[in-house]
Write a structure and sequence with these properties.
mainly alpha; 1 helix; rod-shaped
Length: 153
């Protein structure tokens, strides 16, 4: 009886060992599958990280370009403000010169009006004196004619 029992115990032991090996193999396969899943996830995360780094570098470059453009725009705005201020000052000077010239022009026009009035008065006085001279010349001629008449008699 001992002999048929040994192969049976041996067969049971082999079956138990086979079950243990099958159990370890399935657990190993599950771990391998989990490991592969983790590797795929790690690879995907690495790609996402690389894309995020590229995006961050691109955004940093865009930000630098934007800052440069903003600085150039600010310089242009400052230059435009400076030119506007200079032009405003020049306009103020030109306006003051125009106002002064207008005042001088008005004064000259008034002086011309006064001169014209004075010239009219002078011309009128000359005309009156000329008439008086003509009248005196006529009287003088008459007096000379009378003197000649009186001298001839």
């Amino acid at each position: 009886m001992k002999q048929p029992l040994i192969p049976l115990i041996n067969a049971i032991g082999c079956a138990i060992l086979l079950g243990i090996v099958a159990l370890q193999w399935t657990q190993s396969e599950k771990r391998r599958e989990a490991y592969r899943t983790l590797q795929v996830q790690a690879h995907a995360l690495g790609e996402e990280r690389d894309e995020a780094v590229k995006r961050a570098e691109s955004l940093a470059q865009d930000l630098a370009e934007l800052k440069q453009a903003l600085m150039e725009t600010q310089k242009s705005a400052d230059e435009a403000a400076r030119l506007s201020k200079v032009q405003g000052e020049e306009l103020t000077v030109a306006t003051a010169a125009r106002d002064q010239a207008s005042a001088e022009r008005d004064a000259l026009r008034q002086q011309i009006v006064q001169w014209e009035a004075a010239i009219k008065e002078r011309d009128q006085a000359i005309a009156e004196r000329n008439e008086a001279l003509v009248a005196l010349r006529k009287k003088l001629d008459e007096a000379i004619a009378q003197l000649k008449k009186a001298g001839a008699q």
